[in-house]
Amino acid sequence: MPDAEIQSPPDFGYGRRDPAAGLNDAEAAIATRRSVRAFLPDRPVPKDLIERILNVAARAPSGTNVQPWHVTVVTGAAREAVSAAVHAKRDGGGAQEMGYNYYPVQWFEPYISRRRKLGWDMYGLLGIAKGERDRTYRQHGRNFDFFDAPVGLFFHMDKRMETGSFIDMGLFLENVMVAARSHGLDTCPQAAWVDYTDTVKSVLGLPEDHILICGMSMGYEDTSAPVNALYSEREPAAAFADWQGFGD
Question: pLDDT for 175-188, tens place per residue?
Answer without folding.
Answer: 999 999 999 999 99
